Automatic annotation (TrEMBL):
The modification N6-(pyridoxal phosphate)lysine is found at K227. Its cofactor is pyridoxal 5'-phosphate. This is Histidinol-phosphate aminotransferase. Pathway: Amino-acid biosynthesis; L-histidine biosynthesis; L-histidine from 5-phospho-alpha-D-ribose 1-diphosphate: step 7/9. It catalyses: L-histidinol phosphate + 2-oxoglutarate = 3-(imidazol-4-yl)-2-oxopropyl phosphate + L-glutamate. Belongs to the class-II pyridoxal-phosphate-dependent aminotransferase family. Histidinol-phosphate aminotransferase subfamily. It comes from the Bacteria.
């Protein structure tokens, strides 16, 4: 027999998540060395040395289970955001929180709304619990909030996923657009606002979504330590929301979903504002470097508010493979309905240079 048939049909229908190619895999497959990976929106500065030291110190106690309540991390977040402990839940990366939201609030046959070209985990988390995803057409590659609200209401959806900024498009919704959306939405529909790239927003784009929690008990905000804080491998994120919603997420999460190394590093990372500042500044310069470089090569890109940029290019799949041969890993995003685009993460100046010159060389070959 085919054992996949033991799985429910909605599990069999899942298209697996396609991660960025690891450096070691490219080395193994093509024998390429001196590789630059700009494929997973990782922090090119690494992590705060204070966070690394804290994680290392926590190694001494790996025989003990971590604090299942994540008290130290939550206490640091309480101090920062002025929320209460019961408004916080930690996740094994914010990916975990997206899945927990789906698991806690969606049953088989329920509906969740998200946008075309939005983060791939929303359909995955929805399908994994047997719920039905409704993907709403994008507006200039970004979320069309009015259309999403109308679809959710018309189809009786229970949950809406929103990424701001969105990955892989980098598009951004201004705070007042989100507020208008929340005010028009029935309070019976839960909104998961995924702010994985929040720390990269320029000053004039920042908005205080945490303060909205008082007005919207149906709002759940997720954030991560994987991007600006540089702790992608440790897997730690958090969600802020109404205590009743948080309570439901806590019931379905694993009791020890965040390791003690991750918790220790997260606390230290939160205290290292200087590291986040350097990350932000480097990203700003790198974004300018890559945007100008792409323009010079005659390529169109989608203006991005994250730590990555998606650009239009013919034969994207072939260009991706040629870039691999030249030691540069970017991300094809055909599975996001964008087969003529590639996404490149902002790296160090020298890494961005290497990417741009490899791309220039390839475009020269095809001309
Ligand atoms: C990277 C990313 C995440 C989550 O990453 P974690 O490492 O699981 O925290 C969530 N949402 C978006 C839009 C992302 O790009």
């Amino acid at each position: 027999m085919n054992y996949s048939e033991l799985a429910p049909s909605y599990i069999r229908a899942i298209a697996p998540y396609q991660p960025g190619k690891p450096i070691s895999e490219l080395e193994r497959e093509l024998g390429v060395t001196d590789i630059v990976k700009l494929a997973s929106n990782e922090n090119p500065l690494g992590a705060s040395p204070k966070a690394v030291a804290a994680a290392r110190a926590a190694l001494e106690e790996i025989s003990l289970y971590p604090d299942g309540n994540g008290y130290a991390v939550k206490a640091a977040l309480v101090a920062r955001y002025g929320v209460t402990l019961d408004q916080l839940v930690l996740g094994n990366g914010s990916n975990d929180l997206l899945e927990l939201a789906a698991c806690a609030f969606l049953a088989v046959g329920d509906k969740a709304v998200y946008s075309d070209h939005a983060f791939a985990v929303y359909p995955l988390a929805t399908q994994a619990v047997g719920a039905t995803g409704i993907s709403v057409a994008a507006k200039a590659y970004g979320h069309d909030l009015d259309a999403m609200r109308r679809a959710a209401v018309a189809q009786g959806a229970k949950l809406i996923f929103i990424a701001n900024p969105n990955n892989p498009t980098g598009t951004f919704l201004a705070g007042d657009e989100l507020l208008t959306f929340m005010r028009a939405l029935p309070a019976t529909i839960l909104v998961v606002l995924d702010e994985a790239y929040n720390e990269y927003l320029p000053e004039n784009c920042r908005y205080d979504s945490v303060s909205w929690l008082a007005e919207f008990p149906n709002l759940l905000i997720s954030r991560t330590f994987s991007k600006a804080y540089g702790l992608a491998s440790l897997r730690v994120g958090y969600a802020l929301g109404n205590p009743q919603v948080i309570d439901m997420l806590n019931r379905v999460r694993q009791p020890f979903n965040v390791s003690s190394m991750a918790q220790a590093a997260a606390v230290a990372a939160l205290e290292d504002a200087e590291f986040v500042r350097r990350t932000f500044d480097l990203n700003l310069r790198g974004m300018a470097q890559l945007s100008e470089g792409l323009s010079k090569l005659g390529l169109d890109y989608i203006p991005s508010f994250g730590n990555f940029i998606s650009f239009h290019i013919v034969n994207a799949a072939w260009i991706y493979r040629r870039l691999l041969e030249l030691g540069v890993i970017v991300r094809p995003i055909g599975n996001y309905g964008m087969k003529d685009y590639l996404r490149v993460s902002i790296g160090l100046e020298s890494q961005n240079c290497k990417f741009l010159s490899a791309l220039k060389q390839i475009l020269g070959e095809t001309a």
